[in-house]
Amino acid sequence: MNTPVTSEPAIVTPPLRPGIEAWALGIAGLLPFVTGAVGLWLLPPDWTGLAALALLTYAAVIVSFLGGIHWGLAMPLAQTRRGLLIWGVLPSLLAWAGLLLNSAWGLLLMAASLLLCYVVDCQIYRSLRLGGWIGLRGLLTIVSVLSCLAGAAAFLAQV
What we know:
- The protein starts with 19 loop residues before the first helix and ends with a helix.
- The model has no long low-confidence stretch (mean pLDDT 90).
- It is mainly alpha-helical.
- The chain has helices spanning 20-28, 31-42, 45-74, 82-100, 103-127, 134-158.
- It has one domain (32-158).
């Protein structure tokens, strides 16, 4: 009995709710946010530039990652939703702009970008039946946005 070989890739249905691994990895991904913000307040002045750069750079990477998720969401769809592809590029452009700004303004732009990504994700996730991920995204967004704001405040307090 031979099983026919198909060249069609299997469409993987994403989990409707994040598992323990997603929660653990998401929480672990907050460490650079929190340590960067705390470092800006507690490190000696010689180290705050590095802490600011580390926080800003990590925030930009995460903003870009959040945009890239939308390309991944668009790929398995029978009819590509152009909006997913367009939105998927915009966070990377915001992240790039944030890296060109000084630390305080860049961190403020990253905080706004993280919040904007969350608002867009809430709309799109629900439309794709992924609303169960919004709780995790909400927690990650709150901590990352507060970290960027705390980092910007520390940077501004030093000038």
